[in-house]
Amino acid sequence: MRRHLVAALVALPVAVVTVLGLPLALQRSDEALRELAHARATEARQLSSAAVQALSHGEREVLRQRIADYQDRTGGRAHVFNARGRSVDGALCLLSPDELAQQNVVRAALQGQFTDSSDRRVAKAAEELIVAVPVIHGGMLVGVVVVCSALDDLQLKQWTIWAVVAVIAALALAASGFLAEPLARWILRPVRYLEAAARRFAAGDHDARVPVHLGPPDLRVLAETFNHLAEQVQHQVTVQKSFVSDASHQLRSPLVALRLRLENLEPHIAPDGSRGLEQALGEVDRMTGILNALLLLARAESGAQAVECVDVRAVAEERVASWRLVAEPRNITVTIDGEGDLVASAVAGTVDQVLDVFLDNALRMAPPGSTVQVRLVEDTAMVAVQCIDAGPGMRPDERARACDRFWRGARAAGEGSGLGLAIAASLARANNGHVLLQEGPGGGLHAELRLPARGPARAERRPGALLQKSRG
């Protein structure tokens, strides 16, 4: 954008000088020609009295002397023709007298066809200017005075005019080129601050603001508007997070008290009412799980936790060992596979919580006798934790919505809050990673957590290794 603005700032003065300078130069050149023609016509009219004496009374010596003086004084050449177009006397022009008499300007003057107040006709030949003035005596046309003038001085004056315009254009180009870069930086500085603040705000830094004292007034208003919008969004997000956190925390005590009262009622419940009591206790447990999930989600979205190096293999082995205790009674095998030590850059507890979500969903959906695979892979920039089950999987439209809050698939069992994958996705985003859901090799679900790698990548890894392994 800066290059386009600099180009516009440079091109605009040049375009203005061109649009205004070219007509001005053409006008001044035409004025110079007309001024020269007017001066030559005036000088020719001054010779008219001597021409009348020569044409009417035959006194040519006076005419010759006047023509010679005129040539010495101005450098121009004068020639006199009678009413029939025959040469009477005068200095030689570039054209011969016969050729000069055939010029349109001379023929028009011989016919008395003049229209302007100076009674002249002007012809611009290749190398000289020809001015013809009719000579009137006693109300009759008695001849024509023709003045021929070289165009050297006129061309020099015209070239001077064009040179002045060119110099002005060059100065405008130089000045605009010198001032365009600082001016563009001054104009775009608020835009750069706004872009940086918007990126920080989108990344979760809701304290990002833009200086409001830089740049043009319109951009200052834009900066103030952005800051006001950021404050409103920050306030709304804070209110929402506070509500979720406070509501979840405050509801814990009533639920604990409710569970205790239900358990205390067990000795007083008739045998046929035990089933209802178990269902009530199950609903209390489910509500407690939802509240715990909401608290975890609120902490994940706060974005205020420190990032550190996490030993992904150690965390995965510890969580797999814990979940095997749940899987063995269901006749489900949980395996872990990976090469070497994998270190990710993440908030402490992120890998634990996301892997717990993956394994919980996998064990609930996997059939007895199947295997749930946990695989650890990395490439040059990312570390991936993959969980693959042999369950019914998800359709593409279900995978697209699986990370939405409180969404549950059509095949979901009765338990569950619909917050597990939403929490996993939120934790991944808070660590500059993401959760990927795709179809597993046997039709089950392939859930994958990708986090930024910490430290140099292995030499034997290629940039596409992670993607290839995830497809394998």
TrEMBL record:
Its EC number is 2.7.13.3. Residues 246-455 form the Histidine kinase domain. Residues 185-238 form the HAMP domain. It comes from Streptomyces parvulus. This is histidine kinase. GO terms for cellular component: plasma membrane. The chain crosses the membrane at residues 6-26, 129-147, 159-180. It is found in: Cell membrane. Coiled coil: none annotated. GO terms for molecular function: phosphorelay sensor kinase activity. Its main location: membrane. It catalyses: ATP + protein L-histidine = ADP + protein N-phospho-L-histidine. Keywords: Kinase, Membrane, Phosphoprotein, Transferase, Transmembrane, Transmembrane helix, Two-component regulatory system. InterPro entries: HAMP_dom, HATPase_C_sf, HATPase_dom, His_kinase_dom, HisK_dim/P_dom, HisK_dim/P_sf, Sig_transdc_His_kin-like_C, TCS_sensor_his_kinase. Residues 453-472 are annotated as: Disordered. Residues 453-463 have a biased composition (Basic and acidic residues).
